[in-house]
Amino acid sequence: MNTDSCKKHGIVYTTDTTNSCPLCKNKIFVTPDELEKKSRREQEERNILSTITIPDSKKSLREFIENMPKVVFSNSRITEVIAIRKECIKILFFIYKLSYSHTGRIMKKDHTTIMHHIKEIRKEIENKI
Which residues neighbour 34 within 8 Å (Cβ) at sequence distance 6 or greater? Predict the structure, then answer.
């Protein structure tokens, strides 16, 4: 039985019964090697993240930014990366008192993304109280 998967939906399907993704009906194929590479790359990112500590927020702003893990600036959606990114945003916004737009420029994100993170952080704080 031969299988393939759709890049858009991540669905693995058999090529014996159909030549396209059952959801989008497009012939978007991902080889098992590509899936394995993606899985390996995500595992490597997780291994890197396990060795990273969030920089001390009492340092100067320049030192803090220079010592931030480079993976924080990526577009990765791995849970651990998002958690570290959120902590860095929290420090920049609440400790260093930077605006949404300035924090966004530092993090290489849109200011609305920063607003979303801050909204989530405030909800977490409210839930703890």
Answer: none
CB 40 within 8 A of CB 22: no
- Residue 33 CA to residue 42 CA, distance in Å, equals 14
Nearest Cα to Cα of residue 56 among 46, 65, 64, 45: 64
Reported CATH class of domain 52-128? mainly alpha
pLDDT grade for 109, boundaries at 50, 70 and 90: very high
DSSP code at position 73: G
Write out the two tokens for 21. Answer: 């993704």
Q: What is the reported pTM? A: 0.57
Greater pLDDT, 85 or 68: 85
H/E segment holding residue 114: helix 111-128
3-class secondary-structure state, position 37: helix
Residues 116, 98: contact at Cβ < 8 Å?
Answer: no
Q: Please, which residues bridge with residue 13 across strands?
A: 4
Question: Counting beta carbons within 10 angstroms of the beta carbon of residue 61, is it exposed (0 to 12), middle (13 to 18) or buried (19 or more)?
Answer: middle
